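Encode chain A's predicted structure.
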Amino acid sequence: MIKEPYKELKPNQLNITPLLQLVIIFFSIFFVCIIGFFIAQGIITLLYGSQTAADVSSFNLTNPHVKSGLWILQIVSTTLPLFIVPVVFARFIARDTPDYLKTNFNFPSILFLLVFSIMLFSSPVMEVLVNINQKLSLPTPLKTVEDLMRLMEQQAQKATDAMLSMKTFGDMLFALLVVALLTAIAEEFLFRGCVQTILVKWTHNAHAAIWITAILFSAFHLEFFSFLPRVALGVFFGYFVVWSGSIWTSVWAHFLNNGSAVVITYLYHHKQISLSPDDQHVFNYSSYAFSLIIILILLYIYRNIALKRPMFDF
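Encoded structure for chain A:
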């Protein structure tokens, strides 16, 4: 078991219970995102007019300015708040930025290579989870809720498709910057940084904190039909941080996950590859088994190197 020992408060720390910390951070996210939404709408209105602002809200993709408006909305109402809130929380509320954000580089650089390998070999396992998730359905009394969730995901997919309609190499680099790098930093600071740290302090059990954080991370995206694979990713990210003691291992993993989707989408739309980013039937059962075995081996190696344990320490 990985257990978090009780720690005495540092002189500058506030004695705020973990539950209250979670309430503060999630309320802050909600509040700042709403403010960001109205600021984004104001920016879109100033740049392109009120009609474009309305079309962005309704995902009217016939308006040529909607794509730019969606990027503004994404950055101002989501990416920036998700970055600002954990940074402000760690610095001014928890008053312990190193412990909450874990922005140190005190880990072996080979962990980056191991993270890359784990993310590379995880594709078949993620495909299995996606296919299982797609077959899940809510009980009959909740059919209306399920239909609403499907409609919301279809609308969100339209927005994503519009934003990732990359005509030039520069468009791809911009998408990599926002969707892959900035989003990875913001979401990891929030979830594997603040939320997971709070839950470790609350439960005194890193395993519980990792899994609860992964579930919250997946639920936050409001995408029921990709819930399971995102939980699995959250678990990977959580262990990367707990074992290494640094947020940058999970940021790197998150960047690889998002960035690969951006690059594959770009290459597919430009007919450089035949693999569609929407194809969820690429691998076979042998690939699934091989993927799982390799991932477990790589995670074992990662853990032992990160914790400086003997390679064959069971």
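The chain has a mean pLDDT of 91.
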